[in-house]
Amino acid sequence: xxxxVINCGSSSLKYQLIDSESEAVLAKGLCxxxxxxxxxxxxxxxxxxxxxEAAMPTHKQAIxxxxxxxxxxxxxxxxxxxxxxxxxxxxVHGGEKxxxxxxxxxxxxKTIEECNDLAPLHNPANLIxxxxxxxxxPNVPMVGVFDTAFHQTMPKKAYLYGLPHEYYEKYKVRRYxxxxxxxxxxxxxxxxxxxxxxxxxxxxxxxxxNGASISAVLNxxxxxxxxxxxxxxxxxxxxxxxxxxxxxxxxxxxKENLDIEGIMNVLxxxxxxxxxxxxxxxxxxxxxxxxxxxELATNAIEVFSYRVAKYIGSYVAAMNGVDAIAFTAGxxxxxxxVREKVMSxxxxxxxxxxxxxxxxxxxxxxxxxxxDSKVKVCxxxxxxxxxxxRETVALVK
Length: 397
Ligand code: ADP
Known about the structure:
This protein has helices at 59-70, 106-114, 123-136, 156-159, 165-171, 180-194, 247-256, 260-269, 272-277, 283-291, 295-319, 329-334, 336-343, 355-360, 384-396, and strands spanning 2-8, 13-19, 24-32, 39-44, 50-53, 86-91, 102-103, 142-146, 202-208, 212-218, 221-225, 324-328, 366-367, 376-379. By secondary structure, it is of the alpha/beta class. It has two domains: 2-146, 2-Layer Sandwich (Nucleotidyltransferase, domain 5); 196-379, Nucleotidyltransferase, domain 5.
């Protein structure tokens, strides 16, 4: 079965065509600057990347260009659109309505729309992508895979905020968590990779990308995660602050004469390791800065790693122990310095580091703790597109 995986944002759209039997990517790419000018990146596996600058005023036109590229007689990955058997859509926020992936029926789409309030930047864009695909491929089954679904197993004590209860009742203000597709994929793969029984395991997944979150997965179910109502809570990220004293908002707003939007912009886009270092949100730049003696870059790496270690400690408490810790996403998979710093706080758990393997691991699966380490620590590359394709096949078959 060929599954087209779509991750649609407000002005961009990422896609992959995956053969579900072999799990091979047949082609992938992205549309950028939708509604502005337009740029299609397309790559059939085994061939060079093609970049086409072309007007794509709407998402429907962008998806039409993707479909045209997929069936292009020279560089297409399939001969005709009838070879697309299903479409899997990433949907950011499923609120409390979706604890699992689901077929996108008209009723389901209405329910997703009801969650727009909770993710005003993301959900409407996801829905636009779904509508466009439905128009262009009316007979192809479509599935929604939610970032929040995996975390719906969190107990009340983990998801309620210390706020007046009426805000939960009236507006559903609670912790939801994000990156669920990745946390689910990586926790399952961790158990498999380490030969553990997922149903009888305590796993902590550290998804450290530009957006970063961490989760506690007990017997295969999420019991806590660091992102909240929005992806702003928790770890220090590329440009997001993560946890701060909420009173800082008023303090800075007054000093800098900012309104609430201005403050939110600072917390989402100008903070994190970018804001701390004044250098970059990218760990390649921060590492270079650190090696060149840039103190602010060093601070950013230290604060980032320390925050991860503190969350791990709190999730060990939440699960009354831990069997395995998995690092994933851009930083987790590639930056051995961050992994080393995080692990340096975990000696009390009986974590001992295999320094040579940790230093040599960049983007591959590996066990980076020693054979006699009490807690196994590993690197497990995430693959959200494959996870979406698998979920889609499971519902369509
Ligand atoms: P997202 O999907 O949230 O954009 P990713 O998981 O792709 O994030 O992670 C992107 C981040 O990972 C980059 O900003 C950078 O900090 C880091 N990263 C990716 N590759 C490398 C690498 N080879 N070396 C160091 N850092 C890397």
